Amino acid sequence: MTLTHAPAPESGPIEIPDSAATTPTTAKPAGVSHTAHARRWWALVIIAMTQLVVVLDGTIINIALPSAQIELGLSNTERQWVVTSYVLVFGALLLLGGRIADTWGRKRSFMLGMIGFGAVSLYGGLAQNALDLLLARGLQGLFAALLAPAALALLTVAFPFGRERNIAFAVFGAVAGSGAAVGLLLGGFLTEYTSWRWCLLVNIVFVLIGVIVGAFVLSESKSEGKARLDIWGAITVTLGLGALVYGFTLAEEGWMHVDTIGFLVLGVILLAVFVLIETKVAHPLLPMRVVMHSVRAGAYFVQAVMGAVLIGSTMYLAFHLQLVLGMSPLLAGLASVVMTVITILVVPMVTKLLPVTGPRPMMVFGPFIAAVGMFWMTFITADGSYVVQVMPGLILVGLGVGVTLVPLQNLALVGVAPSDAGSASAMVNVAMQIGGSIGLSVFALAAASASLTAAENGAGDLAVQASGYSAVFLSAGIALVLAGIVSVFCVRGKKEDLLPSHG
Question: Tell me: the pLDDT tens digits for 197-250?
């Protein structure tokens, strides 16, 4: 069986010797050396580590924010933008990064992205003021936008089909699902025992490992032929996404303000122009065939919601644990890691079930399970118990995330031609990062509105904060319900057509 709507490959991608269509699913093909076969699994390790870095960097700073705010004198708005600047720039530039990886070379893009990411992490770790930190976070997003789609495209061509592909994407999905919570745990540990600055400096360790090992185990691949970069498409989609997210951020001050309406309208217009450009140019930044496939479109929407949950809501969870329940940074990180542990435990079981049930049941029930967990946490109070009010919700969210993310990565790339691997891979991360940045803005609005209402009703300071965080969890739960509903209608087709494996 081949990928949906894609012809069976006659030969493998460039320098991927074991991707012939006749390859058995459980053994490497004849003529492929043991060394070459083993290199793919080392490549998976490096690619998974890369995904961990780009995901955890969306949250690792969360627990450190109170300490960074005091040392650098950040305002509350600047504090939120420490997170938003990273995920916004990351998401807005991912499509361009994916196309660069396709045309310039995926390994080459991966290596440049890693080196740049390490350099600006050093800059951020040495930040002396708010501008330094915000600029460093934005530049991290820029290099992550080059790094992440190259990494996922390398994984796609290294494991083109079969049981090994399912295993590879299960590992990748588990890392993507757990990275946000790992960031909270690591951020808590580093903040408490070293300094908040090490939440950025620790990236240098990952970068050194990735560059050194990646130089030996990764094989270069890129699209066949020469393709020109879609500059106007890159400009319109970057400015459009940026304007849209910034408009949501301004909505915290009021939906009817001229600035809010102006940026939201501008974002929509620019994105509409982008779509028009993509239908006209010879070498589009995002071929419309990538997103017009109903299954992939549904997967991208679910990924966006997961981004909002794993990036946006976890920031407010960190605030609740520290600012309301009074936990130390390390204890707050440990309290959050419950979600990660459940995800890690669930993934192997879900991976074994995937060929039996197919992706659709998981894509439907996973978001609903996570939604129940979010709704549970809406009952938090200023004097409540973590064990009663928070931990059961985190267990359910971890379960739902694990169930959802195992099939999600495969569905987001199902039926994609090798020449579109970079763009489709970029869309996976675009959805997550833009979902996260919009989620941060929407959650900030929900928290502010609920906190204002609680304050007007005479609630104390801690109760006001708890009311705001409760509204965030309610919003996240509603978004997860919508993701489950979208999966019902979009993730359709025979089980075999949705599983890129043979036999």
Answer: 999 999 999 999 999 998 888 888 776 656 677 888 888 988 998 888 888 878
Residue 269 to residues 229, 233, 240, 279, Cα–Cα distance (Å): 22, 13, 7, 16
Tell me how far apart the 2 most distant CA atoms of the chain are, in Å: 75
Distances (CA, A) of 336 to 52, 60, 304, 388, 459: 17, 12, 21, 14, 27
pLDDT at 245: 80
User: Is 14 within a domain?
Assistant: no
Instruction: Examine the domain organization and report whether 275 and 292 are in the same domain.
Output: no
Asked whether residue 9 is domain-assigned, the answer is no
Backbone angles phi, psi at 128, to 5 degrees: -105, -10
Q: What is the CATH number of the domain that holds 145?
A: 1.20.1250.20
**3-state SS string over 38-72?**
HHHHHHHHHHHHHHHHHHHCCCCCCCCHHHHHHHH
Average pLDDT over residues 42-66: 83
Look up the pTM and report it: 0.77
Q: What is the pLDDT of residues 73-104, one digit of tens each?
A: 988 778 878 988 888 888 778 878 877 887 88
Among 243, 264, 282, identify where a domain stops: 282
Contact 245/84 with Cβ under 8 angstroms?
yes
Could you tell me if residue 17 is inside a domain? no
Q: Read off the amino acid at residue 143.
A: F
10, with CB counted inside 10 A (0-12, 13-18, 19+), is: exposed
Structure-token match 């982008």, residue found: 274
Question: Residue 29 has what pLDDT?
Answer: 43
Question: Side chain identity at 174, as an amino acid letter?
Answer: A
Domain that holds residue 238: 230-282
Asked if 436 and 395 sit in the same domain, the reply is yes
Q: What are the contacts of 387-391 at 24+ separation with CB within 8 A?
A: 390/317, 390/320, 390/321, 390/335, 391/335, 391/338
Inside any domain, residue 316: yes
CA dihedral 417, 418, 423, 424 (to 10 degrees): 60
CA distance 400 to 212: 36
463 shares a domain with 327: yes
